[in-house]
Specification:
Bound molecules: nicotinamide-adenine-dinucleotide
Helix content: 40-55%
Number of strands: 13
Mean pLDDT: 96
Low-confidence stretches: none
CATH topology of the domain at 4-192 and 233-257 and 295-310: Rossmann fold
Distance between the termini: 44 Å
CATH architecture of the domain at 4-192 and 233-257 and 295-310: 3-Layer(aba) Sandwich
Shape: globular
Length: 332
């Protein structure tokens, strides 16, 4: 059944990919985004490849416009403004994505991370509570902290390290408390190590490709034996879509990941199949970066029939090929 789905922070990396998929599935999609955080109007933009990123961000907006997806530019920290906008939309579901979405940036700027991540979340759920609108909150694998060499599932104790993971976990607890007190239906989704088309967040997979295209050294923070549950954006989008469409998602928390952690050196091996003569440089591991691994996704498979499809051998190659083409078209 077609639903009205509001994406708060819907012009980000995950949000715009989700909007395009939900529209394809005949849902009525509404985006509200300020475009000011990790986006086109950001004041503190990455110095590296800034023009390329602007072009990627414009590409997102063009894709959204082509599909006539309803888009409002608004800072969602402003409670009175968003209340009016959301009231006019009358959504069946709200997917809350707005945040400072990068652990390093959060540790450098906790104040604005709190504001953009938690203030906006509380505004969403305060609006949703009396109308009992299903709120889907995009949390993170960082809520778990160190994995200590074990796979984690949704029952594993959360011991986040640093500002980003702690605020993500705070968001989960606040949302659950609204469920306890106001009966607000919710779903919490924990993604991990995402990569894919039109990301500008400069996570490891993206920087590797950019450096390879430019013939620069590939820098690895650590030994490269660190494992991450690399997840292609299409797999996450299919998981979030299932949460919008399947009642089993209500009042549940899910790891939505590929479900098999791989070494950073293995990601590099895939990169080597697409680029010859890479120069690798190993550096010191980042502070406050927990040791991670596999997020067990059996619960999502069982409750939602979630079926992740893309190992890095497939998903990362797709992404590399998209990036090469975008880069070449951008240069010309
Ligand atoms: N990308 C990942 O690897 C990953 C992994 C786990 C969890 N997450 C979480 O998923 C969510 C989305 O991540 P993403 O990668 O799409 O991030 P992103 O930075 O690409 O997108 C976030 C969007 O939110 C918007 N936004 C932020 N503050 C806002 C505000 N005050 N008002 C209106 N809009 C605002 C930004 O303009 C941006 O378009 C985040 O909550 C992030 O923490 C991301």
């Amino acid at each position: 059944m077609s639903k009205k789905i509001l994406l708060v922070g819907g012009c980000g990396f995950i949000g715009h990919n989700l909007a395009l998929e939900l529209e394809k599935k005949n849902h009525k999609v509404f985006i509200v985004d300020s475009l000011e955080v990790n986006n086109i109007f950001s004041k503190n933009k990455e110095v590296e490849n800034v023009k390329l990123y602007d072009s990627i961000l414009k590409n997102r907006i063009n894709l959204i416009k082509e599909k006539n997806i309803n888009f409002t530019v608004q800072d969602c920290r402003d409670y009175h403004k968003i209340y009016e906008i959301y009231e006019n939309i009358k959504p069946d579901i709200i997917v809350h994505l707005a945040a400072v979405s990068h652990a390093n940036k959060s540790n450098k700027d906790p104040h604005s991370t709190f504001d953009h991540s938690l203030r906006t979340l509380e505004n969403t759920i305060d609006f949703a509570k009396s109308k009992k609108i299903h709120v889907i909150y995009i949390s993170s694998s960082m809520v778990y902290g160190n994995f200590n060499g074990q796979d984690v599932n949704e029952e594993t104790n959360c011991k986040p390290i640093g500002i980003y993971g702690s605020l993500k976990y705070a968001g989960e607890l606040i949302l659950k408390s609204y469920n306890q007190v106001f009966d607000l239906p919710y779903t919490i989704i924990r993604p991990s190590a995402l990569y894919g088309e039109r990301c500008v967040s400069r996570r490891v997979g993206q920087i590797f490709i950019e450096n390879a295209i430019q013939g620069k050294n590939i820098e690895i923070n650590g030994t490269g034996d660190e494992k991450l549950d690399f997840t292609y954006i299409n797999d996450l989008i299919s998981g979030i879509t299932l949460c919008c469409e399947n009642k089993n998602a209500i009042n549940q928390t899910f790891n939505i990941t590929f479900g098999n952690s791989r070494k950073i050196n293995e990601l590099l091996d895939v990169l080597k199949t697409e680029f010859k003569n890479l120069k690798i440089e190993y550096k010191k591991k980042e502070k406050f970066m927990p040791e991670r691994g596999t997020l067990n996704n059996n619960k999502a498979k069982e409750f939602l029939n979630f079926l992740p499809k893309f190992s890095i051998e497939e998903g990362y190659v797709n992404y590399i090929n998209w990036y090469k083409e975008f880069w070449n078209n951008f240069k010309t």
